[in-house]
């Protein structure tokens, strides 16, 4: 029996080592793809016909959907920034999802809105509407007040109302840059294959200085937790998503800044109200639909259009967010399990969904358990120092390399943090991210997995800091 | 216990060293790049400023640009800065010819023409872009050959560059290859239409002549969409001719062309063709027919528009309500009759358009005059009018001190609901 247990532990140690090796291998591939793709892209974006399409009647109208729940401190800033976008034909639809604070009042007062009666055509069923608010002097803006139904429900309401062929979802605490929308749209217009969804980059707003809805000064925040998230976002977007886009395998776009073809979303029934990560589930649903029906389509990620958004500043809220993301990931993958290893769904079903399952969904479980088992095995002399060193190399040292690679990509391309001090701080945190922060993240995600397994799939509300300092 | 071997330990340590060296190299490279770029962009900014001031003065005093000749080599920082400043001026029509001359003297077109044969995509696209901005007509043929390139970036840049050149040769070249472009999908339809539209009024005649000989609906649709974007009067005949085309997309494009022409003047027979489209089997044709009649302000068709308030498609109903609202008082009877209809969606559509289009004042003026009361003595209408007045009008009229009139009317309505 003892021999069996020891053998099992040794085998598990081997498995953890192999798992980390494979994980790092895939991430290295992503790094190569993304570096290659982004470097080619930044040479071309300087030549993109943005100015021409900014005034062209061919540029499709877009509805910017802003679902809001208890966002009284930031909603005006978000709406003001959205109204300033440099785009020929757009509409801003704020969906107040049963807020319990003054979100609606603040909007009405600031924009001098009047209640009007509109016809609601609920192509996708949603919670009932309580009122519509409009000011003929700001014809681009419409505010919908509805009974609380959750973010997905609010977005579906916005989709129902949108009269444009495309809609762009942003978070209520996000700030769109003036040319973000046109930068997101031009690649779609250039594509000969219909692009049904396209995401941009989400950057961390915390610590930035704003004035009248525009970014005035970029600086790194003071809190370490936020800087760790900046590193994560750099890695996740510039490295991760750009890499997936290079091989046409985007399975996730951030709901904080994504553009969708409305009819395509309607075809798949809109956002899933029962999923806590409605953005991911929608992307999988689109893949599912188009692959099943063998229709040509693309889902893209573009690495230069930016939306700045707030991130949690304390551990409690960050933990909630990461648990929710993990629950959402599992919900989405399980819901579309028919695609798993199914050649009928092409590379997406046969390779990339299994990757997400084994490395993103199961990853936290193996990582957290792996840390305990490997460290305990080493202390109990079950594994050798060599193996333990190998584990540390794969789990931590290589992780440092990948973090620094993310910062390097940022330096090579967009360099949104221009100061030397920013650069040095990012490097410092990039290294130390791997000594605690990453492990904590894995732990929270493991917690999310357990929550899912034990049937607790509720949305955990994440309170983010209010409006940042104004100039 | 797993027994490690010296070799394995060496390999692991080597691996760690490689990782540490790679990480260090990334950091060093990033740092060096920052330093180098800072110096480079500082110098570039300095040169740009210098050239901006000098060029402004030279243009103002009509002096010779040759003082700059031989002071920088191709692709140097000065060369780039000089080019960028010249490109700022080339956007303005009064300087365009002069700037083109200067660019030619300094060898920019020749440089980029050579770059067209580069194997690197971004260099090719850069060359195409620049030649387009310089309006370099000598390179039209070379750029035309790139319209069906396998690489979408190259073919897209080519068509846009040709539209920037804007010459008849460029347009003629695109049209000769249009069927191939659309068939191979080397450039998206949207970009093709946008590029053809950029040729403007000057390109209309060629587009129209080309369209006359086209039977392929996809190509015809592209040409007609471009003509609609341009808004040329010359396209009137082709639009009228295609109002009865078998393809609904073509009928819609025809309507869009007509809508794009300012001061459109059509006779009765031609207007009848448009009115016929009110009963088109395809809803978006009906929609655009309504929008056109709205634009033409053809009040004699108010009743036909009124019928469209009952269309099966909400988009058509909404467009009809918008058109009627734009006709002001003339539509009042049509609206009021429709308000008496049983169909809730019709009534709600009307109210939606009334509120959004600012028709409220007209309606309340009629309420005050008492005319509306003739129509509101039915409880169903009361429900809507009451809510409507409460939501929108009471506050406005209190502000304009007409509250007595509105309160009077509201009281009368409230009194009437007791029947």
Describe this structure in words.
The complex is a heterodimer of chains A (471) and B (419). Chain A has 471 residues and is α/β, with parallel strands linked by helices. Helix content of chain A is 53%, strand content 15%. In chain A, the strands form 2 sheets. A 10-stranded mixed beta sheet of chain A has the order 3-4-5-2-1-6-11-8-12-7, with helices on both faces. Chain A has a two-stranded antiparallel sheet with strand order 9-10. In chain A, helix 1 crosses helix 12 and helix 7 packs across helix 14 (420-453). With 419 residues, chain B is mostly helical. The longest helix of chain B has 56 residues, at 6-61. Mean pLDDT of chain B is 83; it is low at 371-382 and 414-419. Chains A and B meet through helix 1, strand 3, helix 13 and helix 14 of A and helix 1, helix 5, helix 7, helix 9 and helix 19 of B.
Can you give me a brief rundown of this structure?
Chain A is an alpha/beta fold and 471 residues long. Chain A has 14 helices and twelve strands. The C terminus of chain B is likely disordered.
Q: Which properties best describe this structure?
A:
heterodimer, A: about 475 residues, alpha/beta, two-stranded antiparallel sheet, 14 helices, 12 strands, B: mainly alpha
